[in-house]
Amino acid sequence: MENQKTLLSADILHTLKCSICDNFLTVPPITITSIYGNEWKCGRCASVMTELNIPAIMFELIAVNLKFPCIYTNCDEDLAWGDVKDHEKSCPYQPMKCPCGETVEMHSCHMHFRQHHPEIISKDSTIMENPEYSQFHTRLILNNDIPFLVYILCDRKADIKVS
Ligand SMILES: [Zn+2]
Ligand SMILES: [Zn+2]
Ligand SMILES: [Zn+2]
Asked: What is the pLDDT of residue 94?
């Protein structure tokens, strides 16, 4: 029989948040960062220095038996401990900031580009540098209808005007 994992109630989940990024404590290692034991840090923030950094081993042992919701609002996947990090990287509901200023969920990126920025969609796999939208360093390349989002970084020191 498959090991049944428990989904925590929303009330409990909201008390179990990282004190740095405010996301659920679902990416290990989880550490305790206050001497009172009431502040924690998640693995997403592992590189952030904190005075205290005590491994919350008991929490991780319990978490193995739990399921957690995805941190992205519109995603309704429940994830097992250990699967969260990989899921967050590819979750279709993760918000992306389009260079036009709008925030678009990854799954609707293609649609957003088609509606608002058709000029940056390339149907063959070439990128033409057009000065008209050179400040727009993003292109969507359609290769056999599979979209690839490309960010272009170019060094154009010669073009920088000082006024
Ligand atoms: Zn965090
Ligand atoms: Zn998700
Ligand atoms: Zn846009």
From this structure: 94
